[in-house]
Amino acid sequence: MNFLITICARGGSKGLKEKNIKKINNIPLIKYTIDIAKLFSSKYNSVIALSTDSLKIKGLCESFGLNTEYIRPTRLGEDNIGKLDVIYDVLQYQEKKLKKNFDLILDLDVTSPLRNINDLDMALSLLNNDSDALNIFSVNESQRNPYFNMVEKKSNGYYGLVKDGAFLTRQSTPKVYDLNASFYFFKRNFFNVGHKTTISNKSLIYTMPHICFDIDNQADFDYMEYLLKNNKLNFKL
C-alpha cells in the first residue's frame, strides 16, 4: 500500500502570526508534526509532502530534513480556500512527480500536534477494517452538547436548542464529539467523488484517549506550552 503524508503550513495567519513556526517549549511548532510524520513514514514506508506558500517555512523544514520542490499555488493561499483543495493539489503533484498512485493519504495538522504513533496506528486499523468507509478523523469527546446546552437563533428570532430533544440531563443525550483537527486519513477515492469538506457520508472517527486541541489564538498557544513545559500531558508524544 502506498502512503502519502501531507503537512500543510500556510505562511499567513490572522489568529496568531507565523504560528506554524513559532517556538513552543523551545521547538518550532511544525517540528512536532515533522517528527511524527517521519516516525509513521519509517513504519509504513510513506512519502512525506510539504505544502506551503512560504519560503521561510520551506527553509525551516529543510533544516529538519523535509525537502520539497513544491510551492503551494497563490490561488490556494487565500482565507476562503478549504484544506481539501490544498491536499488534493499536492497529492496530484506527488503522483505526477513519482509516477505512481497513492492508496492512502494521511494529513497531519501543524497546529494540533498532541498525538502519538499509537493514535495513528489505531485510527488506520479502524479505517482498514471498514471497506466502505472513505476517511477517518480525530476527535475528542465534547463537553458541550447541542441536545442539551447549546442554543442558536431560530427563524422566529428567539433562541432554542441547536438540536431538538427532551433530554433532562447531558448524560442521557446522544454522544457528540469535538473535531480537534489533529489528523485525517483519506482513502484515495475520497478525492474522486467531489467532497467539499472532510466529513463525508462514509466517515469514521477516532476518539483521542487523551487531551488534544487545535491552536487558534495566543491563549491556546500559552496553554499548550504550559502542558509541554511542565510535563502535564497524560500521554507520551
Q: What is the name of the CATH architecture?
A: Alpha-Beta Complex
Task: Bin the strand percentage.
Answer: 15-25%
Strand order of the largest sheet: 4-1-5-9-6-10
The level-1 CATH class: Alpha Beta
Give the key terms.
237 residues; alpha/beta; two-stranded antiparallel ribbon; single chain; Spore Coat Polysaccharide Biosynthesis Protein SpsA, Chain A; 6-stranded mixed β-sheet
What does this protein look like?
The chain is an alpha/beta fold. The protein has one domain: Spore Coat Polysaccharide Biosynthesis Protein SpsA, Chain A (Alpha-Beta Complex), CATH 3.90.550.10. Helices cover 27% and strands 21% of the residues. The protein starts with a strand and ends in an 8-residue tail after the last helix. The mean pLDDT is 94.
Describe the secondary-structure layout.
Layout (H helix, E strand, L loop, with lengths): L2 E6 L14 E2 L2 E2 H16 L2 E5 L3 H9 L19 H16 L5 E6 L7 H12 L6 E7 L9 E3 L5 E3 L15 E11 L15 E5 L10 H12 L8
Parallel strand pairs: 1-4, 1-5, 6-10
Antiparallel strand pairs: 2-3, 5-9, 6-9, 7-8
How would you summarize this macromolecular structure in one to three sentences?
The protein has 237 residues and is of the alpha/beta class.
